[in-house]
Amino acid sequence: MTLLSQGVVVIVSLLSFMAHAEVDPYNTYQWDGKTNQWFEWWYYKVLDPQTHHSFYFCYGVVNPSTTESVSPHARAFVSFGDFQQNLILQTEVPLETFRASTTTPFIQVGPHIATDQALSASFLDSGHHVQWLLSIKKKMGWNAMGWGLSERGLFNIYWHPAQMDASFQGILDIDGKHYIFKDADGYQDHNWGASFPKWWFWIASNAFQENSESSFVGGGGHAQTPLGFPLPTAILLGLHHEGQLYAFRSSEPEYIFDWDMKLGQWDISAFNTSYKLKLHAQADPSQMMDLPFLTPEGKTFHDYETLNGNLHIELYKRKFLSTSWEKIANLSTPNSAGLELGLEEKVPATFELKK
To answer: pLDDT at position 93, please?
Structure first.
């Protein structure tokens, strides 16, 4: 039995279990079946603890067909990235072979299948053969957008870190080279919408030196309404530490933010009356891969990313009846943070975002 056929057997066997498991409604297919211009993908990342190599896997669709029209930019795809080799591989399948469930996390892109608990694929691209069979154990998820996640049509893009902390088991094969994952640190999110923002950022880690049970994810950017009206810069930060989730959302007026981001460096601070969070992230821009995403309009969006960045986070709690702060968390993760800056255009390494 091939690795792919094994994957189908494993994933199909999971479906009966998933039918009785608690379903994350925002990790399911969100397309309404009518919107002509649309993108949706499920993104997975894993860090191999043995070699410290990092990989991503993405299953997605752009402009699914409606009864009224078929977009020239419609596509269904699976993509894979090896950050150490700076290798990006991709396969596209006929759009009619794409399937996704609106009631449970299940995605089928031709013969390639993914859920929130397992994923498999096998394909050739640019002279390379890649295949994988992986299972996922969820540790922690987070509704990063809060109330906004349930407001359909309010934003042009939605982001949901359904598994901000997860562990991966299984096998990845790249041109005959095997990677065996055993409790490897991983992550899974779900993105969808009608169009891309002007820019976005993403920061994530669940491999902190000081506390292996802590996890962090942050994201945001310059989103718009579906009609193109600009919105204030979104900053969404979530830290799970010692059994408590500390959330900071720019959509909630009690939080104050400051940020300075450029390609290779991210500095963000956030606070309210009770807590303050400061983060500094850094990566060599020359070591970041440019992941091209085709927008529903047919343009290429450039997503600069590494899964081997450096991240330092400090969390403070305001002292009782005082203006001073007490540091309650000091976390660092060298060479194992996910760092990302997505932009409309290909940019030089000196690029810096303007507030």
So the answer is: 96
Find the domain containing 131 and state its range: 1-194
Tell me the HSE value of 338 on the side-chain side, using a 13 A CA sphere: 28
DSSP code at position 36: S
Secondary structure of residue 209 in the 3-state scheme: coil
> Measured between alpha carbons, how far is residue 248 from residues 19, 169, 263 in Å?
33, 31, 23
Closest C-alpha among 50, 28, 48 to residue 40: 28
* 136 C-beta neighbours (distance < 10 Å), count: 22
Q: DSSP secondary-structure letter at 28?
A: S
Q: How would you class 314 by CB atoms within 10 Å of its CB: exposed for 0-12, middle for 13-18, buried for 19 or more?
A: middle
> Of how many residues is the chain composed?
355
Identify the bridge partners of residue 260 per DSSP, sorted by sequence position.
Answer: 267
Do 230 and 323 fall within a single domain? yes
d(CA 162, CA 234): 18
10 Å CB burial of residue 36 (0-12, 13-18, 19+) is: middle
The total of other beta-carbon atoms located within 10 Å of residue 9's CB is 13
Question: Is beta strand 54-62 parallel, antiparallel or unpaired with respect to 39-47?
Answer: antiparallel
Contact 140, 246 (CB under 8 A): no
- Closest listed residue to residue 54, CA positions, set 28, 31, 32, 87: 87
Q: Are the CB atoms for 252 and 146 separated by under 8 Å?
A: yes
Q: Which of 145, 166, 194 is the last residue of a domain?
A: 194
| Local confidence band at 45 (pLDDT 50, 70, 90 cut-offs) | very high
Q: pTM here? A: 0.92
* 248: β partners: 237
How many distinct structural domains can be found in the chain?
Answer: 2
Element (H, E) at 32: none
Residue 1 CA, distance from chain mean position: 32
What are the structure tokens assigned to 6, written together?
């094994």
- Which residue among 162, 194, 226 closes a domain? 194
**The tokens of 114 are what?**
């993914």
Q: Are residues 16 and 120 in the same domain?
A: yes
β-strand pairing of 75-82 with 54-62: antiparallel
**Higher pLDDT, residue 268 or 253:** 268
**Among 59, 56, 53, CA closest to 78:** 59
